[in-house]
Amino acid sequence: MSQIVKIKGMNKYFGKLHVLKDIDLTVEQGEVVVIIGASGSGKSTLIRCVNGLEEYERGALEVDGFGLAPKGGNQKSLAEIRKEVGMVFQQFNLFPHLTVRKNIMLAPMKVKNTSEVVAKATAERLLERVGIGNQADKFPTQLSGGQQQRVAIARALAMEPKLMLFDEPTSALDPEMIGEVLDVMRELAKEGMTMMVVTHEMGFAREVADRVIYIHEGQIVEEGKPDDVFDNPQNERTQAFLSRVLAH
Amino acid sequence: MDSQFQFDWQAAINSIPYLAKGIPYTLMISFGGLVIGFVLGIIFGLLSINKKWYLRWPATAYIEIFRGTPILVQVLFIFYGLPDLIGGPIDPITAGIAAIALNSGAYISEVVRGGVQSIDKGQSEAGLSLGLSRTQTFWSIIWPQAFRRMIPPLGNQGIVSIKDTSLFSVIGVGELVRQGQVYIANTFTAFEVYFVVAIMYLAITLSLSLILRLLERRGVASA
């Protein structure tokens, strides 16, 4: 049982818009899956379904053995799933009223009843790990975008997740800060973290991904090892997309 | 027309001790009413953005009714009307506190709603994704940020409610205006006395403004 995510026949609608069409996808423990596709293709929606930030209409979803039913069904395991799945957002979504350290301490203390002393030590260790150990007492707005995103990664890691979701983590960053965030993610992948990453960073996808998935209009149209997908795409949609994004 | 009128400073100063007896009533009714109004505002403000229609509708009805009718009518209704229903008299101070509470509660509900809705959706998504429950997400992430934004409009409401207590002179509460009216009836120094009454209101409202400004500055320093 090393499949941490199992998605079967997942369909999702925004009103009349059919955003996810019969998605079948499994993610193995320790695997890094990078999801690429044009904007509006449904790639963000897909990973947002994994931790229940979006509900889906039909199909089945299982995360680390916990089933999460479609809309209107049994959502009891949602709390368990969210404890095990960390998420990093495009807009960081740090808590502006809390210091960097408290941003990281909040969830362990509230959700796992971790003591303040332990939570604080964890926060400081994680900040060291993402390379900003000296910023703990600052407020998020006092940091650069790249630093904020690294805090957001540390905040998610503090819950010791089994799976990390990254929703375009570098899309809101100035170009010179993208590298520092990708470095942290690369380290994380090397340490064996299971990751689902939605990104436009094709270099990162090629280097770090175990598997690349291309989504077009809500459907998985291509899936495979990065070298295969990038160098020898089978589907003409994938070919067109890649020639557009890799051209510059 | 040539006026012979001269401001009588001595009369103004003489009136102060008598008028000052009204201040505790003004303060007590405003403070008591606003504290209850704040609680009502949190409850009904949050209910008014609830997804369930049977919670949202009554809250919206309360807000519209008490925002849409004059507070003078509300207090007259409570003081003269309600005793018929409950079969016993209502003390004027209680009626005053109730009127301020219900009236400010309606306005504060809207302040609460606006404050909460102004917080980016990403904040609650971040909280939920970390495993916090909806309740935990609200009270430890959304509310502190929303409350900070609510301070200026809450200050406004505080000042409005303090001034609204002047209307309760009509049901015989011995607050500032009522004290002034009684005093004038004996001395015929309307100009001086109402001048002093106005200054006293101003002293109260300016103190509140000052406190709120300090509170806001402390908030900004940590944001």
What can you tell me about this protein's structure?
The complex is a heterodimer of chains A (248) and B (223). Chain A is α/β, with parallel strands linked by helices. Chain A has a single domain, classed as 3-Layer(aba) Sandwich (Rossmann fold), CATH 3.40.50.300. Chain A contains 9 helices and 10 strands. Chain A has helices spanning 43-50, 78-84, 100-111, 116-129, 145-157, 175-190, 202-208, 226-231, 236-246; strands at residues 3-14, 17-28, 32-36, 58-63, 66-67, 85-88, 163-167, 194-198, 211-216, 219-224. In chain A, strand 1 and strand 2 form a beta hairpin. Chain A is globular. Chain B is an all-alpha fold and 223 residues long. Chain B has a domain at 24-172: MetI-like fold (Orthogonal Bundle), CATH 1.10.3720.10. Chain B has 9 helices and no strands. Chain B has helices at 9-20, 23-47, 53-68, 71-86, 92-117, 121-129, 134-164, 176-187, 190-221. Classes of the chains: A alpha/beta (248), B mainly alpha (223). At the A-B interface, helix 2, strand 6, helix 3 and helix 5 of A face helix 6 and helix 7 of B.
What's this, in brief?
The complex is a heterodimer of chains A (248) and B (223). Chain A has 248 residues and is an alpha/beta fold.
Helices and strands, with pairings:
The complex is a heterodimer of chains A (248) and B (223).
Chain A: E1 3-14, E2 17-28, E3 32-36, H1 43-50, E4 58-63, E5 66-67, H2 78-84, E6 85-88, H3 100-111, H4 116-129, H5 145-157, E7 163-167, H6 175-190, E8 194-198, H7 202-208, E9 211-216, E10 219-224, H8 226-231, H9 236-246
Parallel strand pairs in A: 3-8, 3-9, 6-7, 7-8
Antiparallel strand pairs in A: 1-2, 1-4, 4-5, 9-10
Helix pairs in contact in A: 3-4, 3-5, 4-5, 5-6
Chain B: H1 9-20, H2 23-47, H3 53-68, H4 71-86, H5 92-117, H6 121-129, H7 134-164, H8 176-187, H9 190-221
Helix pairs in contact in B: 1-8, 1-9, 2-5, 2-7, 3-5, 4-5, 5-7, 6-7, 7-9, 8-9
